[in-house]
Amino acid sequence: MKIMVTSLFVQDQDKALPFYTETLGFVKKHDVPVGKFRWIALVSPDEQDGTELLLEPNDHPAAREYQKKIFADGIPATMFGVADIHQEYERLSENGVKFTIEPTKMGELTIAVFDDTCGNFIQIVQK
């Protein structure tokens, strides 16, 4: 068994898509209309056959409430691995990404957290 797709609730799919592709650098694998929303799945440019990140609309009240509460508490919705967190921090900062936690050493890991502008905090980590 392996993880094929993981979902991330977003407030606005049209806003999230360019942020996750143009700013973060993910590659759009699927963008299929599904009723009033879309099945938007992204992949890492280095693993295009790997796990897909689904930009899931937070249209359901439970999804909206969940997203709102973890954001209010400063809890990252997901975590992405990076090879060089300081380089990634600089690149993203130069592209206007707002960090709530700058690169910080935590044991054997270094983490940073940013606002995705779509209702989530995202953590990046370097092992």
TrEMBL record:
The name this protein goes by in its record: VOC family protein
Organism: Paenibacillus arenilitoris
InterPro entries hit by this protein: Glyas_Bleomycin-R_OHBP_Dase (IPR029068), Glyas_Fos-R_dOase_dom (IPR004360), VOC_core (IPR037523)
Segments forming domain VOC: 1-127
Pfam family name, one: Glyoxalase
